[in-house]
Design a protein that fits this description.
Layout: H1 3-18, H2 22-34, H3 40-53, H4 56-63, E1 75-79, H5 89-97, E2 101-105, H6 113-124, E3 132-134, E4 143-147, H7 150-159, E5 165-168, E6 172-176, H8 183-194, E7 204-210, H9 216-221, H10 232-247, E8 253-254, E9 259-262, E10 272-278, H11 281-290, E11 295-299, E12 309-311, H12 330-335
Length: about 350
């Protein structure tokens, strides 16, 4: 299969899932039966975002530098995450785009959507059929891309040590506020916090704010996202963390659906966002660069000189094809296997 054929097939797939038909819509509706976090709205949003990513212009720009016409196909084992809908699809896309075979271990939390979409890809281009297989336990592979928690990543590092590999750990995303943001910009940052209920590594879990920052305008600007509290699992987390703060007499702010607490840590509990004061933008930049290995993206309307990827408000969950997780060029890794 030529690179042109791959790009054409991925583009057709993108068009298909950007405008889901009845069968795909039904599969999206069923996702919540296996995973309560996968509401119809969240799952549809994820599917459409992937569809928009798969456009001819971006695919051509992304793949043209990687000539796979003479590649010797390798079998790449994929251990997929399941924290947000179809989050593992990107790694599959990279493997297929590079001309390799994807041996897929699906997450137990996301077992319907990815096979459905890949089956649609095979209908578009039957040549992909021999490049896709599923397994419950990885065996007979040449390389591995695995995503897990900090605990499971240590197991992955040990188990896959002798194979070429990419092992991904927990990361979090942060936002830097200057106090000059408009209501619209803060509302978009609200989406960076709440989309997919804050379960993704690209969700903002911490805010860096100037000294003496007042959160009133921030809370007003994200009020339209209040319906998140109607999801029973989110609400349970909100109630639990609120009770912990109250029992322990920990200072916090509460707008009825989000808890905001000063804390130096990056990773906040669900329904909680941590914040940290900075005395200058330069100081905030230094702090972020120090924490760079634990940060996925930084959201800010301000221009910042930082190591992690910087995105505008509202764009944390809309990566481009070349916005590689953890800053590791997955296509370059896969091309090196040849």
């Amino acid at each position: 299969m030529t690179l042109t054929q791959r790009i054409k097939a991925f583009t057709e797939l993108g068009s298909l899932i950007s405008n889901p038909d009845e069968n795909l819509t039904a599969t999206i509706s069923q996702a919540k039966n296996a995973n309560a976090w996968f509401t119809f709205e969240s799952t549809l949003n994820s599917v459409k975002n992937i569809g928009q990513m798969l456009n001819n212009e971006d695919l051509t720009k992304w793949l043209t530098p990687y000539d796979n016409s003479s590649i010797t196909p390798k079998t790449v084992g994929l251990v997929l995450a399941g924290n947000i809908p179809m989050v593992g699809f990107y790694d599959i896309l990279c493997v297929l785009a590079a001309g390799h075979k994807a041996l897929i271990k699906l997450s137990s939390h996301d077992q319907q959507l990815i096979p459905f979409v890949l089956n649609e890809l095979i209908k578009i281009e039957p040549g992909f059929n021999d490049q896709i297989s599923y397994t419950e336990r990885l065996q007979q592979f040449d390389a591995v891309i695995a995503t897990g928690s900090n605990n499971t990543s240590r197991y992955f590092e040990h188990y896959f040590a002798k194979y070429p590999h990419i092992i991904r750990k927990n990361r979090n995303s942060v936002a830097v506020l200057t106090g000059n943001e408009s209501a619209e910009e803060l509302g978009r940052i609200g989406h960076d916090i709440f989309d997919y209920f804050g379960l993704g590594c690209r969700n903002v879990s911490k805010l860096f704010v100037p000294e003496n920052y007042k959160f009133d305008f921030f809370f007003e600007s994200i009020e339209h996202l209040q319906p998140v509290i109607n999801h029973h699992k989110y609400c349970n987390n909100y109630d639990y963390n609120k009770s912990i703060f109250l029992v322990n007499s920990e200072l916090h702010l509460d707008n009825g659906f989000l808890l905001v607490k000063e804390d130096e840590r990056l990773s906040s509990p669900l329904a909680v966002v941590y914040f940290e004061y900075y005395s200058s933008i330069a100081g905030a930049q230094d702090r972020i660069n120090f924490l760079a290995n634990d940060i996925q993206v930084v959201v800010s309307a301000a221009g910042l000189n930082i190591t992690p990827q910087l995105v505008k408000p509202g764009e944390s969950q809309h990566p481009k094809l070349w916005d590689y997780a953890d800053g590791i060029n997955t296509l370059e890794f896969l091309s090196s296997l040849n």
